[in-house]
Amino acid sequence: MIGTMAFDYQVSLQVYHPDADPADIVDGIAIQASRSCKVGDRRSAPNGADLSGHYHETYCLFRLGGGNDGKLAKCLRDAVKILQPKRQYLDWLRETGGRMNFYVGWTVGERGEVFDTRLLSEIAQLGIDLGIEPFRVRQRSASHHI
After folding, report:
1. Is residue 125 in a domain?
2. What is the CATH number of the domain that holds 125?
3. Nearest CA to 145 among 27, 25, 10?
4. Does some domain include residue 142?
5. Residue 2 resides in a domain
6. Signed CA dihedral, 30, 86, 20, 38: sign only
7. Which domain of life is it from (predicted)?
């Protein structure tokens, strides 16, 4: 988009569970995890530095896509299409105490985005919450989709 700044975005799936093994979550989601930790493990920063305490739940982060093209809704639709066949596993995660959310990092541009009711309904049917964090300054982002 020459002349207008759409916006930059990055979409990840965050999965939390009280006691599941992260390797099992990765197998169930069938996407490479960018970061994972198991309940009880010593806490660490994303750069690997040790932090105080231990994780109180298992956590997996899956980077799903991003770009600077202003097509966030399309990126979310693509993620939903990939996750729909895994709905039974996602249901199991929730039924056993887990929770999930799409985490969207969004650098504000000159326009916004519309998430139509169909997309929102499909996200809700998967039991995935939607979190959006706006940034004023462009973040380090990948320009790829799933």
Report:
1. yes
2. 3.30.70
3. 10
4. no
5. no
6. positive
7. Bacteria
- Within 13 Å and on the Cβ side, how many CA atoms surround 77? 10
- Hey, what are 30's tokens? 């069938």
The C-alpha atoms of residue 139 and residue 106 are separated, in whole angstroms, by: 8
Rounded to the nearest 10°, the torsion over CA 83, 86, 92, 93 is -40
Q: What is the pLDDT of residues 4-35, one digit of tens each?
A: 557 889 999 999 999 999 999 999 999 999 99
Cα–Cα distances in Å, from 59 out to 5, 33, 36?
Answer: 34, 10, 5
Q: Which residues in the chain show pLDDT less than 70?
A: 1-5, 137-146
Q: Token match 């690997």: residue?
A: 48
Task: Scan for tokens 């596993």, then name that residue.
Answer: 89
End-to-end CA distance of the chain: 21
For 101, the enclosing helix (H) or strand (E) is: strand 99-107
Residue 14 tokens read as 């965050």
42 token code pair: 């010593």
